[in-house]
């Protein structure tokens, strides 16, 4: 199970890295960021295929998207100086709590 969650965390990292490169690619006009973001997304989806063999798709997608949204919001604050209202920050923390709860009661697939 450690390998499965490791793949999931790497998939989340790759998805976040690809998303963070979207504004840098300037509407896909900058070739290097565009190629890098494409590779990150492809690796993320590739790793997700292994995770979905072991965990239910609902759990995988909720974790992948929830932690991705939370991480992108944090990185957007630090790298792009984007701010969020306190309500949005509270919502992001609720997402993390939800991901933790969902993964606490996960039934693995054989």
Instruction: Decide which structural class fits the backbone.
Output: mainly alpha
Please provide the ordered H/E string of secondary-structure elements: HHHH
Number of E-state strands:
0
Rg over C-alpha atoms, rounded to the nearest angstrom: 15 Å
Low-confidence stretches: none
Q: Describe the sheet with the most strands.
A: none
The geometry reads as flat
Residues in helix, %: over 70%
Indicate the proportion of strand residues. under 5%
- Average pLDDT level: 91
**Total helix count?**
4
What's the end-to-end separation, in Å? 11 Å
Protein model, in words:
The protein is an all-alpha fold and about 110 residues long. Helix content is about 80%, strand content about 0%. The chain has helices at about 1-25, 30-50, 55-80, 85-105. Helix 1 (about 1-25) runs antiparallel to helix 2, helix 1 packs across helix 3 (about 55-80) and helix 3 packs antiparallel against helix 4 (about 85-105). The longest helix is centred in the middle third of the chain and has 24 residues, at about 55-80. The chain is flat and about 45 Å long. The relative contact order is 0.15. The mean pLDDT is about 90.
């Amino acid at each position: 199970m450690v390998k499965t969650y490791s793949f999931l965390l790497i998939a989340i990292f790759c998805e976040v890295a690809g998303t963070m490169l979207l504004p840098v690619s300037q509407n896909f006009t900058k070739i290097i960021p565009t190629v890098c973001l494409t590779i990150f997304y492809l690796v993320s989806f590739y790793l997700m295929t292994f995770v979905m063999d072991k965990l239910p798709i609902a759990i995988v997608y909720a974790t992948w998207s929830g932690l991705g949204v939370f991480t992108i919001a944090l990185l957007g604050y630090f790298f792009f100086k984007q701010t969020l209202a306190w309500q949005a920050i509270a919502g992001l923390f609720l997402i993390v709590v939800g991901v933790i709860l969902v993964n606490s009661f996960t039934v693995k697939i054989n």
